[in-house]
């Protein structure tokens, strides 16, 4: 099985996309992350949904989950509100590292290794200078589980 067999057409965002719009895409389409593209439509980064949470959840709650319990439910439910006014550019991980990009002939193991190495839940698949789709962690696991049975 190759990357081309696992392609999913995912929405992309740009560096200037407002974070509330990006969060809406993640939630409405049940995505693990978003592919960030530059002005030419080429991959420039991957924004994992978990990184948005790291930015939105107060650090003291991440450091000590007991502190998260003392926030009343009405205020706890609004933690994403502090992201209003931010763009994707402002929320990308500082240590972007290796960009998870593969060609359509990449094997499932190559894709899995790339996801594991970069800690990103999706890989952009590029052919002839254009993004032809992405492979998500969910798609990769589902296909490999079905062939392992």
Automatic annotation (TrEMBL):
It comes from the Bacteria. SUPFAM superfamilies: CBS-domain pair. Keywords: CBS domain. InterPro entries: CBS_dom, CBS_dom_sf, Diverse_CBS-Domain. Residues 6-65 form the CBS domain. CDD domains: CBS_pair_bac. Pfam families: CBS. PANTHER family: CBS DOMAIN-CONTAINING PROTEIN, CBS DOMAIN-CONTAINING PROTEIN CBSX3, MITOCHONDRIAL. This is CBS domain-containing protein. It comes from Thermostaphylospora chromogena.
């Amino acid at each position: 099985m190759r990357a081309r067999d696992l392609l999913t057409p995912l929405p992309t965002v740009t560096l200037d996309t407002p974070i509330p719009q990006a969060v809406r895409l993640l939630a409405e389409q049940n995505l693990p992350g978003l592919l960030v593209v530059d002005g030419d439509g080429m991959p420039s980064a991957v924004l994992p949904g978990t990184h948005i949470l790291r930015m939105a959840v107060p650090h003291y709650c991440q450091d000590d989950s007991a502190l998260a319990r003392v926030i009343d439910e009405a205020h706890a439910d609004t933690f994403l509100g502090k992201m209003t006014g931010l763009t994707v550019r402002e929320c990308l991980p500082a240590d972007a590292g290796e960009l998870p990009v593969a060609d359509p002939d990449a094997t499932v193991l190559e894709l899995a290794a790339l996801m594991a190495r970069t800690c990103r839940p999706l890989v952009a698949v590029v052919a002839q200078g254009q993004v032809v789709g992405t492979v998500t962690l969910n798609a990769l696991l589902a296909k490999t589980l079905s062939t392992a049975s």
